[in-house]
UniProtKB/TrEMBL annotation:
<dbReference type="InterPro" id="IPR050068">
    <property type="entry name" value="MurA_subfamily"/>
</dbReference>
<keyword id="KW-0131">Cell cycle</keyword>
<keyword id="KW-0133">Cell shape</keyword>
<feature type="binding site">
    <location>
        <begin position="122"/>
        <end position="126"/>
    </location>
    <ligand>
        <name>UDP-N-acetyl-alpha-D-glucosamine</name>
    </ligand>
</feature>
<dbReference type="InterPro" id="IPR036968">
    <property type="entry name" value="Enolpyruvate_Tfrase_sf"/>
</dbReference>
<dbReference type="GO" id="GO:0051301">
    <property type="term" value="P:cell division"/>
</dbReference>
<comment type="function">
    <text>Cell wall formation. Adds enolpyruvyl to UDP-N-acetylglucosamine.</text>
</comment>
<feature type="domain" description="Enolpyruvate transferase">
    <location>
        <begin position="7"/>
        <end position="407"/>
    </location>
</feature>
<dbReference type="GO" id="GO:0019277">
    <property type="term" value="P:UDP-N-acetylgalactosamine biosynthetic process"/>
</dbReference>
<dbReference type="GO" id="GO:0008760">
    <property type="term" value="F:UDP-N-acetylglucosamine 1-carboxyvinyltransferase activity"/>
</dbReference>
<keyword id="KW-0573">Peptidoglycan synthesis</keyword>
<feature type="binding site">
    <location>
        <position position="328"/>
    </location>
    <ligand>
        <name>UDP-N-acetyl-alpha-D-glucosamine</name>
    </ligand>
</feature>
<keyword id="KW-0670">Pyruvate</keyword>
<dbReference type="InterPro" id="IPR013792">
    <property type="entry name" value="RNA3'P_cycl/enolpyr_Trfase_a/b"/>
</dbReference>
<dbReference type="GO" id="GO:0005737">
    <property type="term" value="C:cytoplasm"/>
</dbReference>
<dbReference type="InterPro" id="IPR001986">
    <property type="entry name" value="Enolpyruvate_Tfrase_dom"/>
</dbReference>
<keyword id="KW-0961">Cell wall biogenesis/degradation</keyword>
Length: 418
């Protein structure tokens, strides 16, 4: 199994290009199923999860073509199955996002329940309730969500709690429903806005994406279109934290600073000098040690759960004590035990971790447990004395494109071994 080896001690310096967002491209690929002609998606990140989604779309009959720049064109006109099997859904929870599109387009869909994952349970009751408001009959049998509706009809739906996935599934379904749908307490993440932009390019009529109230006027058909995926705010944030921890200076190119305000505010609070110029974010730490910061994860525009592990790594070597509250997932502290192996001082009590910064970490073999936990271990390795070897990095390949090449380009001593 492949591993990543990091030799600590280099202050990062240089420029890095940010890829398209994993959490935007996956719903967008599912949304292409709504169209009645090919849809071209560009700025697609080269990720394992993208390959899995493409496999799922191909399995149900969609035509997939990939150009030399990794742009993906999906031709949904050849879809012949409305069943998403367990083998694919289990490896990637985002597969559940084919439910809304298949139901809206074909009047029925069967999608395996995603089950939980390492970071916590991943229920889909909010997705189901939203589709029921649009008139679907939904049952859960033999581990599958089975949904049916001759034609969905618009309605007003209030999500009980903010859910990114449920907002995406119901939004996609509503585009082909008869009449108007109003979604209240909708998620406001930039990835929802990007999905709505892609749907709009396919002929959907959507207002309010990016606010808590989205209004969709259903249309009879969606046509083909083109869309370029929004830059990955979590990837950009991860590189900026790496620069801050190592006392370095980097510029993230092709980023979207307006989608990352909570993260940039915390980096500034940690003592980083930040300069945003169009799609470029420059962070300069001027060789200083970061100051500890308190973090509470919550839905956008608050601090994202997907950056919690990386800021935990920063607090491990910061000056002072940082308190981290994780409010989205019940088990998203699995990086703690691995960070402790590197010499960190962290105490966990329920959803709260208290991190006391130490002067130095020391390299050790560690194990990645999930995607962002893997990133936090690389960050810790960048500042640890000696060598840190990270096992089970397949998690990393789900969500970061060429991370070791990008970090090497910034001067880090990092390599992948078999
Ligand atoms: C609000 C939030 O930060 N969402 C994150 C969540 O999105 P993802 O779409 O995976 O998860 P949701 O936004 O749906 O989950 C938010 C919360 O709602 C609960 N829930 C969700 C659906 C449902 O049907 N029933 C239910 O109870 C979840 O258990 C969770 O506590 O994980 C992604 C991957 O880390 C992140 O990119 C998203 O930013
Ligand atoms: C946990 C993540 O993704 P997923 O919901 O696909 O597991 C993530 O992007 O940090």
């Amino acid at each position: 199994m492949q591993k990543i080896v990091v030799e600590g001690g280099v202050a990062l310096d240089g420029e890095v290009q940010i890829s398209g967002a994993k959490n935007a491209v996956l719903p967008i690929l599912c949304a292409t199923l709504l169209a009645d002609a090919p849809v071209e998606i560009s700025n697609v990140p080269h990720l394992h999860d993208v390959v899995t989604t493409a496999k799922l779309l191909a399995e149900i009959g969609a035509g997939i073509s990939i150009d030399e720049r990794y742009g993906i064109t999906v031709d949904p006109t050849t879809v012949h199955s409305q069943v998403a099997p367990y083998e694919l859904v289990r490896t990637m929870r985002a597969s559940v996002l084919v439910l809304g599109p298949l139901l809206a387009r074909y009047g029925h869909a069967e999608v395996s329940l995603p089950g939980g994952c390492a970071i916590g349970s991943r229920p889909v009751d909010l997705h189901i309730k939203g589709l029921q408001t649009l008139g679907a009959t939904v049952t859960v049998e033999n581990g599958f969500i089975k949904a049916r509706a001759d034609r969905l009809r618009g309605g007003r739906h209030v999500f009980e709690m903010v859910s990114v996935g449920a907002t995406e599934n119901v939004l996609m379904a509503a585009t082909l429903a008869e009449g108007t749908t109003v979604l209240e307490n909708a998620a406001m993440e930039p990835e929802i806005v990007d999905l709505a932009d892609c749907l709009t390019a396919m002929g959907a009529r959507i207002e309010g994406a990016g606010t808590g109230r989205i209004v969709v006027e259903g249309v009879d058909r969606l046509h083909g279109g083109r869309h370029s995926v929004v830059p990955d705010r979590i990837e950009a944030g991860t590189f900026l934290v790496a620069a801050a921890m190592t006392g370095g200076r980097i510029t993230a190119r092709r980023a979207r600073p307006d989608t990352m305000k909570a993260v940039l505010a915390k980096l500034a609070e940690a003592g980083a000098q930040l300069d945003c110029d169009g799609d470029r974010i420059t962070l300069d730490m001027q060789g200083r040690r970061p100051k500890a910061v308190n973090i509470t994860t919550a839905p956008h525009p608050a601090f994202p759960t997907d950056m919690q592990a990386q800021f935990m790594a920063l607090n491990c070597v910061a000056d002072g004590v940082g308190v981290i509250n994780e409010t989205i997932f019940e088990n998203r502290f699995m990086h703690v035990n691995e960070l402790l192996r590197l010499g960190a001082d962290i105490r966990v009590d329920g959803h709260t971790a208290v991190v006391r910064g130490v002067e130095r970490l020391s390299g050790a073999p560690v194990m990645a447990t999930d995607l962002r936990a893997s990133a936090s271990l690389i960050l810790a390795g960048l500042v640890a004395d000696g060598s840190t070897t990270i096992d089970r990095i397949y998690h990393l390949d789900r969500g970061y494109e060429n991370i070791e090449e990008k970090l090497s380009g910034l001067g880090a001593r990092i390599r992948r071994i078999d």
